[in-house]
Design goal:
326 residues; alpha/beta; Rossmann fold; 9-stranded mixed beta sheet; 4-stranded antiparallel beta sheet; 13 strands
Length: 326
């Protein structure tokens, strides 16, 4: 084993976003609560793309909204350039949100259908009194004509074009961090590739830091410097994209990789690596939350929750029986 410690640590790089022990839960009736995010920690270095991946209901989108304080987490810390966002209220929080913008999963419903494209992109500058001179630049930067497209309304555009508008709306305020919450999952495969290429180009042009969330590990790996795997509100594994594919250590990560078409990258069939359906986040299993679906689970997996430990250079896993660890 290469060592142990807290999973948010990164060997090198200027950290712009630091998340520690993030907890988000919701009332579920009868005195119960939905444990959506339970103690997630990670760092994002300036200029990198951190991917977050997992099945539907794993807590990745809830994590994204908690970064924006929508709503604020019940516990934990979110720091942007050292500023504790969970402690901010009112105008101070609104001002900080200029530096942390979000793109949503459904590009059509996230846009006001009654407003013209130029007005949608210019909404932020009108509120903040800054960035109005960047509206046409942003419309053009996302691949739309600022003359012809700007006067049309969202219903006149395809889903991919609407997502371009959403990206322009987010970038016009010159954010440092762009949170992409499943930005291509509602789009056709060919359009997905176009939007991913656009995001990569804009990242370089405007020196952005990205948090990219998706349920498709193949997509996340291709656009991310590092990938964080979540399951039922917990972090399972954190590693560079190539490392995660070549040496997956957590049984859940291996199952996600095995489910990718084209043979599952040489892994056994997914149904040999994962079984059944995810348990309820209202009553998660004791110990390791993946143990009820894991063929490798043993008594220790029910008795104690595994902690994130380092098993390689910038490779962390929360598992009592990780693959390939000493």
């Amino acid at each position: 084993m290469a060592g142990s410690g807290t999973a948010h640590l990164r060997p090198a790089g200027d950290v712009v976003l630091r998340v520690e022990d993030l907890v988000v839960d919701f009332p579920a009736g009868g005195g119960h609560r939905v444990h959506a995010v339970s103690g997630v920690s990670f760092d994002v270095a300036r200029g990198e793309t951190l991917g977050i991946v997992g099945e539907s209901g794993c807590g990745k989108s809830t994590t994204a909204r908690a970064l924006m304080q929508l709503p604020p987490p019940r516990a934990g810390s979110v720091r942007l350039d050292g500023v504790e966002l969970t402690a901010l209220r009112g105008e101070a929080l609104r001002a900080t949100r200029r530096r942390l913008q979000m793109i949503f999963q459904d590009p059509v419903s996230s846009l006001n259908p009654r407003r013209r494209i130029r007005d949608i992109v210019a909404e932020g500058p009108r509120v903040w009194g800054a960035g109005a001179d960047r509206v046409d630049e942003m419309i053009e930067a996302v691949g739309l004509d600022p003359v012809t497209a700007a006067e049309r309304r969202p219903h006149e555009f395809s889903g991919g074009q609407c997502q371009r508008v959403s990206i322009a709306r987010a970038l016009v305020l010159e954010p440092e961090v762009l949170i992409c919450d499943e930005p291509v999952s509602a789009l056709d495969v060919s359009v997905q590739a176009q939007i991913l290429t656009l995001l990569e180009r804009l990242k370089e042009r405007y020196r952005l830091t990205l948090v990219f969330i998706a349920h498709d590990l193949a997509v996340v790996k291709n656009v991310s410097d590092r990938v964080l795997v979540m399951y039922l509100g917990k972090t399972c594994e954190l590693a560079g994209g190539d490392t995660l594919v070549e040496r997956p250590a957590h049984p859940y990560t291996r199952a996600l990789l095995a489910s990718i078409p084209r043979g599952g990258l040489g892994l056994p069939p997914a149904d040999r690596l994962i079984r059944g359906e995810p348990p309820s986040p209202v009553t998660p299993p004791s110990g390791c939350r993946f143990r009820t679906r894991c063929p490798k689970a043993g008594p220790e997996c029910a008795a104690a929750e595994p902690v994130m430990r380092r098993i390689g250079e910038d490779h962390w896993v929360a598992c009592h029986r990780p693959e390939g660890a000493d």
